[in-house]
From TrEMBL, chains A, B:
Gene this chain is encoded by: pap
Single Gene Ontology MF annotation: polyphosphate:AMP phosphotransferase activity
Protein name: Polyphosphate:AMP phosphotransferase
Occurrences of domain Polyphosphate kinase-2-related (ranges): 11-235, 269-493
NCBIfam families, alphabetized: poly_P_AMP_trns
Length: 499, 499
């Protein structure tokens, strides 16, 4: 999902100054409170080269009392370190209760830079992720707060910065051959980062993506994020002493990593083009359907999107040429009585397709992190841990050979209003629109924020999210069918090429 | 650790009848309470062939209201099941809130019987364990109680039972060729079970070993274990509604899996033999020490044991011929001020040996599950999760190439008293004995129970516990030096044979 994140985010001078001042004071206070409460904190800076880690660390610590923190730069390991198990250098640097340790690069080096350089064989990778997960789980179980920041710039931005650094004698040494290699092979490095993020984005130690194109935006987001995490930790510590889990308010919405804001909704195609394309794709799908049946490939397609974004229409076009014995559409409504007394994923597990079959979900298990989150139908801890649970479920499906794709049908608020009104005016479509649709619409911003977080946390290499520009229905339908066709073709090729 | 468990445990008729009646009534009541509280429960029966799973399931459910449970027998997977991801058959069988599902074999089949039959390649193994772990974590996070029972009989006992089954026409079909194969290659199957247990003994879903030689002992232990787990779940559910975590009393000590009860403390050797052997072994060690230095093998030796069991004397003999630049002894006392404000494993991480060096710990990180547990220096949840944390640390060391061995020096209560009195009488040794030693001695039973649980939960293939019969000091010293010598020789051979 990294490549879809909107990196153009900026902050204006005035808002920046205001945020800077507010968060700075807040951080100082929170540091003192964490010290009193004996809460140890680790702040990890990872990310692209020249994304400004050094500058940002420097900026962040200005707000902190220097007697209460340590900064560790983690370059290549030393001889002493290489003589010991990988985690030794980090375990020995754990902050004491009430102290803060800031890491400029960290235990993630092995699964990012070293993996890129081919120094870690693929078969060691899952062990390395496992070590990281258990390391962080052990620490957070013991009360550690782990804040993980991934500073992200585009390939072009990085190139520009490298060139600028090289142009001056004082800074040119900072750009290495390896740096340039990661720029030249940016996509490969991005993919490695993507896998790192999806394997280590745990509910007890989640990642925050920092859009680092605009330095002031990044600085403000980092301060706000750190302050929020410390505040949450203090709240939780106080609550644990008292009553049961209480909802901790979600703040700083303005700094959530955005995918939707970067979606170009003007994309469209003409009716003629649409007719031609959709006809071609449907015939193709018909053919591929028999292939996947023969090769026993299971397929899971999930559809989510705004009300009236056109899910129904797409599913109709998707299935019109398919053999009905080989696919099934599952509409997902509010859970019934039986479903309510089971694990929330149980009803979806019941509909896992057989090998060779297609299961199409009209709304999905993502209800947990969308409607249930926004409407408060589940506790905060529940939707927060759902990202990992859902990733695990989808990874299990993918490991069993399934094609798993999720579509987010995106329209803007105006387009939705237009469609709602059309539906109300058309006696044949009136049933499609209810009071609830209008109510949901009022919570647009909350939903948008939930959608953004969902897209960032659950788009994986094995089960990607595809954001579909849906203002033009024709464009949306063609994009979706095309995506499915290509995914099936890829999978068929993979299976046929197996030795 | 399986092979060290005392399988001779029995129960007398009268105690059995009493336990049976008590637990039966209790189970009925607890089932109703769990139903009211909406707690779903899964009870998993795994174990050796002919260990009596069917009989025991049948016996257990007699105590339950049949309207509230389902029993699932998990034979080889059906065609329908093979067409879907591995976990599908279990996820779809989840009990609803308030119901109990009993599994006769389960999702562990793949990592036991199928692994034994060579149906699962080694490279898929860690993925399979990972699936199991996340499956159980997802469920318990959602409030599921998972009770996992491993029914264990010896090879001889199994053989006897197979023969008996075969001797009658009605039952002979129940013994298959695969059953006999697992008996013939009992040690290999045991090793597979051992690895299964150590990879899936999580604090949220721990295993209980059922010594199944005596059917009535097993039945009583199973009932008691299930009742205890349900009671704990109810307590926790009630507590979560109210104040913070409270200590749940640990009960049913009498049914804890025992290792110590099977230790033969009469083992001894003569002074002459001792002198000859110790001399030979020390010279051998001196030679091996230079080898491991050359090959850069790190070595971690941990010593635990009863007060006055002879740890100091052993460590002296172990190190007397070693180059002091190549080893270090770390005595472990109560944590100091600095250590107290760090993670409890931090101080031990600081002493992880460099490659090629030996670290000897006189008392270890196991203090967490011994003295801290018994004396209440940490919370129940903390020592319970420590088993997994410690296993993870030791596995990290072993993966980095280290030899890791832990010794439990065992003596009986009489021997300890004798030694205490000797120390008091001897002016040169008086410093070795304090009031605290006498106080600890009063808690012998509590410590014994903690030691048994520690040995069962943390003896792993990569970092085994060695229980040392210590009433005869000569015997103990020779056994320990011999164990170290053999482990080093094995490791050196392994490293030298590496391509």
């Amino acid at each position: 999902m990294l490549e879809k994140i909107d990196l153009s985010k900026k902050i204006d001078k005035e808002t920046y100054k205001k945020t800077e001042k507010e968060q700075s004071e807040k951080l100082g206070l929170l540091q003192r409170q964490c010290k009193e409460a004996g809460i140890p904190v680790m702040i990890v800076f990872e990310g692209m080269g020249a994304s400004g880690k050094g500058t940002q660390i420097n900026h962040l610590i200005q707000a902190l009392d220097p007697r209460g923190f340590d900064v560790y730069a983690n370059d290549k390991s030393t001889d002493e370190e290489r003589m010991r198990p990988f985690l030794w250098r980090f375990f020995t640097k754990l902050p004491a209760h009430g102290r803060i340790a800031v890491f400029d690069r960290s235990w993630y080096r092995q699964v990012t830079m070293e993996r890129f350089a081919g120094k870690i064989p693929d078969e060691d990778l899952s062990g390395a992720f496992h070590d990281i997960q258990s390391f962080e789980r052990q620490l957070t179980d013991d009360g550690m707060v782990i804040i993980k920041l991934f500073l992200y710039v585009s390939r072009e931005e990085q190139k520009k910065r490298f060139k600028k650094l090289e142009s001056s004698k004082e800074t040119s040494w900072r750009v290495t051959k390896e740096d340039w290699k990661r720029n030249t092979e940016y996509d490969r490095f991005l993919h490695i980062c993507e896998e790192m993020l999806q394997n280590t984005d745990m509910d007890y130690a989640p990642w925050t993506i920092i859009e680092a194109t605009d330095k002031e935006y990044a600085a403000a987001k980092i301060m706000t994020c750190v302050a929020d995490c410390l505040e949450d930790a203090l709240n939780k510590k106080n609550l644990n002493g008292g009553a049961k889990e209480k909802e901790v308010p979600v703040r700083s919405e303005s700094f959530k990593a955005g995918v939707l804001s970067g979606v170009d909704l003007t994309k469209s195609i003409s009716k003629e083009e649409y007719k031609k394309e959709i006809d071609r794709l449907q015939k193709k799908l018909e053919f591929l359907h028999s292939q996947i049946y023969r090769l026993r490939i299971p397929v899971v397609l999930g559809f989510e999107g705004w009300d009236a974004a056109g899910k129904g229409g797409v599913i109709k076009r998707l299935t019109s040429h398919l053999d009905p014995r080989g696919y099934k559409v599952y509409p997902t409504a509010a859970p019934n009585d039986i479903e309510r007394v089971h694990h929330y994923l149980w009803r979806f597990w019941n509909h896992v397709p057989k090998a060779g079959h297609i299961a199409i979900f009209d709304r999905t298990w993502y209800g947990r992190v969308l409607v249930e989150r926004v409407e408060g139908f589940c506790r905060e801890s529940q939707w927060k841990q759902a990202y990992q649970e859902i990733n695990e479920m989808e990874s299990h499906l993918a490991n069993a050979g399934a094609v798993v794709i999720k579509f987010w049908l995106h329209i803007d608020k105006d387009e939705q209003e237009k469609r709602f009104k059309e539906r109300q005016a058309n006696p044949l479509k009136q049933w499609k629109i209810t009071e609830e649709d209008w109510r949901n619409r009022e919570k647009w911003d909350q939903y948008e924020s939930a959608v953004n977080e969902m897209l960032v946390r659950t788009s994986t290499t094995y089960a990607p999210w595809v954001v579909v520009e849906g203002n033009c229905k024709y464009y949306a339908r063609v994009k979706i069918l095309k995506t499915v066709v290509e995914a099936l073709e890829d999978k068929i090729k993979e299976v046929n090429n197996r030795p």
